[in-house]
Design a protein that fits this description.
- This protein is α/β, with parallel strands linked by helices and 484 residues long.
- The protein folds into 3 domains: 187 residues, Isopropylmalate Dehydrogenase, CATH 3.40.718.10; 132 residues, Isopropylmalate Dehydrogenase, CATH 3.40.718; 108 residues, Alpha-Beta Plaits (2-Layer Sandwich).
- The protein has 13 helices and 20 strands.
- The chain has a 10-stranded mixed β-sheet with strand order 2-1-3-12-11-4-5-10-8-9, with helices on both faces.
- Strand 19 and strand 20 form a beta hairpin.
- The radius of gyration is 26 Å and the shape is elongated.
- The site of nicotinamide-adenine-dinucleotide has 21 residues, from loops.
């Protein structure tokens, strides 16, 4: 008999304690070999004034056990509270968020009877870095950050997952027709890594039409890998069209640690009434059991759960007259699953887990960057300004440029307004003034930028930020301008 595995458990808020109780009762009845370390996270911790919603002792438990089974939590309304989920994912490097969305037709009502999609969401980057600024009276900004190693890790994980789970195809969703550098990098990395997996089909969709296709014809997809924000939105949609958000579990995987949860929230309106469906958290716990190398227990729990669903024993969210046989509460649903341990479904496909690939072969190899030539060729200076026309600003700033730097363009919300702007273009108080080296193709240095900023300051303008413009290996690596 193998040793018990320590697992950090948080019961969470709202329906959290009820669904966690149900989940733990089921996996313990199935013989899960775990030692539970309970920690408190969420609303009560936030309201004690801890802005991350988690105590130091809970971090220490996680660092020790490296496995976290977490019920949903409530983030209190109002400013100043950081998302515990985002913090945990980033602090522990949980780069892959795996969300299987499966139909259980005809036992759970769905328009898509054969749907079986795994959403593989990048978990640490994109707009979720939460780096935001108010810059002017009218304008706020959020930074979208996509890195090469971050993209490589999630894309390689998706292909490795496809291979080890006998999946046939990996599809990338992104929007590189608009975000040419950020989503462009994600797409490029996808294409590069896909080459290493000739046994697995690959394809890429622009996220808008890809989402429409997913909502309409999910059978066309197998594993979908995508940046953080698109993944967040699409995994809820995918879970809902498969049957219910209450049915999907999620694994957050890192090199050193992993967190397992339901994809839904704490559903406060349902709390304390023995109503909630514990299936999402239970299926999260099944993924945890595979991860901690207890595939026998994972198989037994998952098959008993399938059998329960197939027997029509349903909580309110999936209960349907004529399909369901019994409407039950959270506790009774757990009792029904426990009573079916050892059974397999008759019509739904039984599962059979064999090993724990997550923490062995899934660790991606991230490539090291080649030696690239990086040249500073210009600077965009952003201004807070609201006292004139684009032509007036252009005239002033032509004079401000000096010391080898020349004003080449002004934009407002990305649209070119100088030179040769159109009177119809709406402008705000947020301007971008592009300065390039006088001599075409020449490089510039930091001191020229500092000198330029001094001149702008002396001329009485409020610059709010700058972005350096670089060529990498001679290729312009900054956005060109709409209307250029
Ligand atoms: P929610 O997922 O809690 O609820 C959305 C809807 O789904 C509700 O109608 C709810 O009744 C239903 N539902 C959700 N889970 C269910 C279940 N297990 N059984 C039956 N019905 C279920 O989303 P929300 O209402 O937007 O958010 C409520 C709180 O949850 C917020 O404080 C939010 O910040 C938090 N939240 C937490 C997590 C997490 O901890 N991972 C994720 C999402 C939202």
């Amino acid at each position: 008999m193998s040793k018990n595995v320590p697992v950090t458990v948080a019961r969470g808020d709202g329906i959290g304690p009820e669904i966690m109780d149900a989940t733990l009762r089921i996996i313990e009845a199935a013989g899960a070999r775990i030692d539970i370390e309970e920690v408190e996270v969420g609303e009560k911790v936030y309201l004690r004034g801890i802005s991350a919603g988690i105590e130091q002792s809970a971090w220490e438990s996680l660092r020790r056990t490296k496995v976290f089974l977490k019920a949903p939590i409530t983030t209190p309304q109002g400013g100043g509270y950081k998302s515990l989920n985002v913090t945990t994912r980033v602090m522990f490097g949980l780069y892959a968020n795996v969300r299987p969305c499966v139909s259980y037709y005809p036992f759970v009502d769905t328009k898509h009877p054969t749907m079986d999609v795994v959403i593989m969401r990048e978990n640490e980057e994109d707009l979720y870095t939460g780096i935001e600024y108010r810059q002017t009276h009218d304008m706020v900004e959020s930074l979208k950050l996509i890195s090469r190693p971050g993209s490589e890790k999630i894309v390689r994980y998706a292909f490795e997952y496809a291979r080890s789970h006998n999946r046939k195809k990996v599809t990338c969703f992104m929007k590189d027709n608009i975000m040419k550098l950020t989503d462009g990098l994600f797409h490029k990395v996808f294409n590069e890594i896909a080459n290493d997996y000739p046994d697995i089909e690959n394809e890429a969709w622009i996220v808008d039409i890809g989402s429409a296709k997913l909502a309409d014809t999910p059978e066309a997809f197998d594993v979908i890998v995508l940046p953080n924000l698109y993944g967040d939105i699409l995994s809820d949609i995918a879970a809902q069209v498969a049957g219910s958000v209450g049915l999907a579990g999620s694994a957050n995987i890192g090199d050193r640690c992993a967190m397992f949860e339901a994809i839904h929230g704490s559903a406060p309106r349902r709390a304390g009434q023995n109503l909630a469906n514990p299936s999402g958290l239970l299926l999260g716990a099944v993924m945890m059991l595979v991860h901690i190398d207890q595939p026998d227990i994972a198989t037994s729990v998952h098959n008993a759960w399938l059998r329960t669903v197939e027997d029509g024993i349903h909580t309110y969210d999936i209960y349907k007259e004529g399909v369901s046989t019994q409407r039950v509460g959270t506790r009774e649903f757990a009792d029904a699953v426990i009573a079916r341990l050892g059974q397999v479904p008759g019509q739904l496909k039984p599962v059979s887990y064999t090993s724990a690939p997550h923490h062995t072969s899934y660790t991606p190899t991230v490539s090291t960057p080649s030696a690239e030539q990086k040249d500073l060729v210009g600077v965009d200076v952003f201004l807070d300004w609201h006292s004139g026309t684009p032509d007036e600003l252009g005239e002033k700033f032509r004079q401000v440029g000096s010391n080898g730097l020349e004003l080449t363009m002004i934009t407002n919300r990305g649209a070119k307004v100088w030179p040769g702007g159109m009177p119809e273009t709406f402008t705000t108080d947020h301007w971008r003034c592009r300065f390039m080296a006088h001599t075409r193709g020449a490089t510039i240095d930091h001191s020229q930028i500092i000198h330029l900023l001094e001149r702008i300051d002396t001329a009485g303008y409020d610059f709010i930020k700058i972005e350096n413009l670089y060529n990498f290996d001679g290729k312009a690596s900054y956005s060109t301008i709409q209307g250029e």
